[in-house]
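Entry 12.
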Amino acid sequence: MTATGDVVRLLPDRTSSTGTHEQFIIKLSSGDLTVEVEHNISIAPRVPVALGDHVVVHGEYVWNAQGGLIHFTHHDPQGTHEGGYIQDNGKTYD
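Predicted 3D structure (tokens):
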């Protein structure tokens, strides 16, 4: 999925078996909904997002009771998954 929105909250990095993930929440442009973004910085560069930044996020959406999350916002080194990206301040991070 591809979503656009404004960064409304920055979260601490989270480390899991798949790597370290930069996390933040965006308020979608299409309505009053929020979604968490989990970007694997063990695979792709950190996105220097700041509160209020307008971003475009492309990745895999996973529903949860808090509004869901978007992950796989980076290239897939194994080539088994569609690559994603985050656009922030005119630059694409994948």
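Annotation: The domain at 2-93 is CATH 2.40.50 (OB fold (Dihydrolipoamide Acetyltransferase, E2P)). The chain has one domain: 2-93.
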